[in-house]
Structures are given as C-alpha cells and as structure tokens.
Specification:
The protein has 156 residues and is α+β, with helices and mostly antiparallel strands. The protein has one domain: Glutaredoxin, CATH 3.40.30. A seven-stranded mixed beta sheet has the order 2-1-5-4-3-8-9. A two-stranded antiparallel sheet has the order 6-7. The chain is globular, with a radius of gyration of 14 Å.
Length: 156
C-alpha cells in the first residue's frame, strides 16, 4: 500500500538526467511534486511528462518543484528529457529504492517477469515534508488527474 496523506515523505537522494544529485529534504520550504512513471519513451509516460512540462508555470506560481521519477538509467532519462524538451529534472531510481520506499513498485510490466518499474503515481509534499496529495493509478496506462494535482498544489 502506498504512503498516504499526512505521512512524512521518505527522504532520498537520486541523480537526475544530467547526473546532478537531488536530495528531497534540501527542498524543505517549498512544495514538491514527485511524478513516478513506468518508463521513458512510452506513450502515456511521454504524455504525462509533457503535460507537467506544459503546466510548469502554474506549478511554479504555486511554489511547487516537480520531479519525474522512473527506474530508467540517467542516460535514457536524459535522451527522454531532451526529446520531449522537459523543463524539470527526471530522477533515475535505477535501484528501485525510492520506488519501494514510496511503495509504488509495479511488478512484471506488460506481463514480463522481472520487469519491475515504478507505478504511475503522484505525491505532493508540502514545505514541511508532509504528504498532502497522493494518486496511484492501478493501471499504468491511466494518466493521473492533472486538475486535482494542480488544485492541490495551488492550495498549499
């Protein structure tokens, strides 16, 4: 079961698509959106990350920092970011540690044994490091409710 609203967000450090490390706790004082997605270069994941890209202005005005997170290698994440002109970091959880800490591991994607990826999940974390919004889709082909994410971010 995924973490729920009111829980402290587990801290982590992951490298992004430019090999720059990001530590969640270093963003205390501002809201953070963690957008877990299964895999770079897949249709729904591209659409989701591009939707966040296109709404970054709204998120920035809500003082929210967004990070995409997948189990892809940072080099794949970089190619994915460049192809889609993403304007926020894509973090590489290649060891699946953060995916497991947030309890959003999706095993056997496409019924392929051992193809364990991040589920499609969105966490909104407030300036104090407390989870204020959670959405985990049961089907990785289903996009998150963007309006709800934006509304939750604007309310903080």
């Amino acid at each position: 079961m995924a973490l729920s609203v009111g829980h402290s967000a587990p801290d982590f450090t992951l490298v992004d698509n430019t090999l720059t490390p990001h530590t969640l706790s270093s963003y205390k004082g501002q809201s953070v959106i963690l957008a877990f997605f299964p895999a770079a270069f897949t249709g729904v994941c591209e659409k989701e990350m591009c939707t966040f890209r296109d709404n970054l202005g709204n998120l920035s005005s809500a003082n929210a920092k967004i990070f995409g997170i997948s189990v892809d290698l940072p080099f794949s994440a970089d190619a994915f970011s460049k192809k889609n002109e993403l304007n926020f970091p894509i973090l590489s959880d290649m060891n699946r540690e953060v995916t497991k800490a947030y309890d959003v591991l999706f095993p056997n994607l496409a019924n392929v044994p051992g193809l364990d990826v991040s589920a499609r999940a969105v966490y909104l974390i407030d300036a104090d490091g407390i989870i204020q919004y959670v959405e985990v889709t049961e089907n990785p082909g289903v996009e998150p409710n963007y309006a709800a994410v934006m509304s939750a971010a604007a309310s903080l």
